[in-house]
């Protein structure tokens, strides 16, 4: 079925270069802060003396904020508009980063989790603003291409974050773990306090960058745009008019697909360090594994920029991604050692085009419901909270490798959405 185009409320002659650069900078921040979690998990596991399941609360606290805050974020955006909403999101993220200071000084895990939740709250507001903004900044047929460009900014930062944060927080981690076994309680506490303090300077710098970016956006010329039909006073033939958001079946199926996708994306990026370490690979080596996953995603995004929509459609890209995800998941389960870790890393390649493809397919033709639908899809990011926690719980009983079976049905549903689900209820 041919996709219906979405127009924008700013003149076509205006260049989209400046808005794309600004949003690209925001996506870079998203990526750095988000994928630093892959290093925070093993770091906090040592510093706060946690089990694997407890350590995975890092992803839970971070991503569950999307479920809590997405619809309030939609309300905020209706009041503030995209530009002021982005500024507020950055300020909230800066506050969350600064909470890491008392968390580290007291070495209190719950305070770390609070900081992560506040950062996630700011990100929920930013994601609710930025994703639809990029989607409706041009024709719907090329939305996946624009989102892929944003993905390069996001995952480029995601590749850098584990290298920087790992070098700071997990430097000589294996030697430290061995040393801790030889110390008495007082000596152990002193070493762990020193380890916990390593997180302070990086997160102060993150907070400063976030506040500077908020100030930059305040003085920028970033325009307000709307999806065609979003203004109730304007009639449009390109909008699938319905009385309620609940009547858009393809949107709700897209929400489920996005929920499952974010879960498997976080599994590939944030659990790979713990998984590699569980196989006997040293943390000094495993701390770089998240970067490999991000490099796989970067390769996928580059392909999307070149191929969509010139050579393949968004739905076709989604089909190939889902099939690759199934095959790579099975590869991780049925192989061993570094080969199994390789298959987890290469899931980044399979995952890259899923988000860029699902988002425009799910909000196509929603008109005045675009912001509410965007908030719904942002709730789907909570999949990153629940699936990794489920993986960790299953891993404690069946082993971390066998726990990766939960990814297979997720990719199967994404494949269904790519083939049939995105068309369900699109036209009456």
TrEMBL record:
Gene Ontology terms for molecular function: D-glucose transmembrane transporter activity; galactose transmembrane transporter activity
Chain segments annotated as transmembrane: 21-43, 55-73, 85-103, 109-126, 147-170, 200-219, 250-269, 289-309, 316-335, 341-361, 373-391, 403-419
Signal sequence, renumbered to the chain: none
Pfam families xrefs: MFS_1
Gene Ontology cellular-component annotations: plasma membrane
Primary localisation category: membrane
Cellular compartments annotated: Cell inner membrane
Keywords on record: Cell membrane, Membrane, Transmembrane, Transmembrane helix
GO biological process, one term: D-glucose transmembrane transport
Membrane topology recorded in Swiss-Prot or TrEMBL: Multi-pass membrane protein
PANTHER family listed in its UniProt record: L-FUCOSE-PROTON SYMPORTER, N-ACETYL GLUCOSAMINE TRANSPORTER NAGP
Protein purpose: Intake of glucose and galactose.
NCBIfam families tied to this protein: gluP
Family statement: Belongs to the major facilitator superfamily. FHS transporter (TC 2.A.1.7) family.
Name of the protein described by the UniProt record: Major facilitator transporter
């Amino acid at each position: 079925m041919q996709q219906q185009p979405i127009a924008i409320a700013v003149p076509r002659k205006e260049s989209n270069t400046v808005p794309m650069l600004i949003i690209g900078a925001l996506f870079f921040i998203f990526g750095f802060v988000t994928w630093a979690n892959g290093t925070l998990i093993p770091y906090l596991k040592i510093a706060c003396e946690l089990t694997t399941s407890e350590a995975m609360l890092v992803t839970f606290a971070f991503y569950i904020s999307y479920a809590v805050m997405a619809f309030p974020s939609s309300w905020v955006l209706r009041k503030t508009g995209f530009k002021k909403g982005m500024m507020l999101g950055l300020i909230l993220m800066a506050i969350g980063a600064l909470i890491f200071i008392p968390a580290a000084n007291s070495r209190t895990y719950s305070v770390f989790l609070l900081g992560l939740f506040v950062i996630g709250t700011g990100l929920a507001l930013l994601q609710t603003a930025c994703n639809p903004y990029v989607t409706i900044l041009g024709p719907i047929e090329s939305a996946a291409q624009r989102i892929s460009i944003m993905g390069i900014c996001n995952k480029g930062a995601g590749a850098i974050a584990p290298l920087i944060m790992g070098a700071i927080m997990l430097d000589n981690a294996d030697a430290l773990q061995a040393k801790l076994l030889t110390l008495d309680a007082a000596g152990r506490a002193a070493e762990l306090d020193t380890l916990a303090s390593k997180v302070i300077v990086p997160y102060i710098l993150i907070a400063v960058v976030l506040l500077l970016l908020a100030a930059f956006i305040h003085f920028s010329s970033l325009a307000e745009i709307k999806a065609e039909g979003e203004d109730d006073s304007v009639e449009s033939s390109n909008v699938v008019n319905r009385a309620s958001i609940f009547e858009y079946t393809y949107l709700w199926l897209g929400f489920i697909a996005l929920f499952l996708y974010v879960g498997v994306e976080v599994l590939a990026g944030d659990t790979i360090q713990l998984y590699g370490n569980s196989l006997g690979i040293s943390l000094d080596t495993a701390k770089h594994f998240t970067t490999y996953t991000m490099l796989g995603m970067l390769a996928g995004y580059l392909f999307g920029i070149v191929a969509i929509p010139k050579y393949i459609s968004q739905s076709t890209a989604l089909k190939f991604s889902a099939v690759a995800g199934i095959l790579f998941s099975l590869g991780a389960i049925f192989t061993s050692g570094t080969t199994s870790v390789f298959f987890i890393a290469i899931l980044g390649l399979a995952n890259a085009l899923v988000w860029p493809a699902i988002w425009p397919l799910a909000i196509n033709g929603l008109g005045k419901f675009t912001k509410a639908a965007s908030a719904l899809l942002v709730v789907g990011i909570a999949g990153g909270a629940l699936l990794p926690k489920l993986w960790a719980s299953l891993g404690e009983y069946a082993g971390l490798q066998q726990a990766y079976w939960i990814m297979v049905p997720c990719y199967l549903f994404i494949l269904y959405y790519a083939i049939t689900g995105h068309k369900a209820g699109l036209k009456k």
